[in-house]
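Help!! Second protein's tokens look totally different from the first
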Amino acid sequence: AVNTFLSSPESRPALVFCPTRRTCETMSAHYREANPTIPASFYHAGLSKAERRERESWFIENSEAVLFATNAFGMGVDKSDIRTVIHTYAPPDALSFLQESGRGGRDGKHCHSLFLLQGPPSAPSLITTIFTQTNTCIRALLLKALDEEGQHCSGCDVCDHTVFTKREGEEAILNALRYKPFSYTTVTLMNHLADDTIRHRHSGHLSSWQRSEIIEAIGLLIAEGKIRRLKRSGRLFCPLR
């Protein structure tokens, strides 16, 4: 999903908030592997003070940079031209989300703030509740959580009528199974979707993904009941609607 959202030069520089140091490093490595021409790095409290300063300077000076960071990335780092802020996890409260998403667009130009949620949350929080509802202005709900009055919305999904409820890759996976049910196991389906060197229907549709990401996405759809698996053979199919 991060690759897709940051594919356009207009979406960068970008700041991607991650829940842990390890996630920062892993996501940064995957992103660099998939996008070798785009400068990317990671930032967290486990780096030395000198390393953090070096990466802050690198990020500030680079107009194409993508930085994967924990909340250790401080508000004092003054980069005014961030065009996209992505949260790959739910911050603990509305204030944290607003402070972190507020790192973008400090030059007064448009900035996208994206919240990525993989599947139904195991323990719904205020933040996930706000972002998974589709009826009330997201900005108004965030401000209400801080006991503040709602302000003019500059364009949340609800007010823009652009709410997107299907996850990236979901249709590619389900369409492959609908076309050839009982033909794939999890691994063979992953290989089929990842391989863009063969000319079969639906093959290579997720070639930009890491194979582990495809496996994870298939597993999530199985857990949600959108895909079922035969016990003996492990072959996959979509249940009748």
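Here's the second one for comparison:
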Amino acid sequence: MSPIPVTLLPDGRAVHGEHEAKGRTPILALARVLVAAGFDPGRPVEVSGADGRPGLRGRLGAMARLTVTEGDREGPRFALWQPMPADRLAELREIGRPAATAAAH
């Protein structure tokens, strides 16, 4: 099974074809977008920078289930992703926060 090529651009967007995501964890957000678009969660993903050099590799489904958290007493770490509650998402949309559209994925 050939890997899904993902490019991390200098502006912080992660892209694959017509699909893209941005935010604090754009690669993981893009994985959720791709799964929602019907890509096989078992497919490998290969992320490269805009310069084409390969970097992160993983399985699409595993990447889609993760986010990164950081507490006051610990550095960044992977955690299970959970969608934003609908009432909070509606509140962000109401005030025009652009992150509200990406959070729906």
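Reply: Different proteins will give different token patterns, so don't panic. Helices lie at 26-36, 60-64, 86-94, 99-103.
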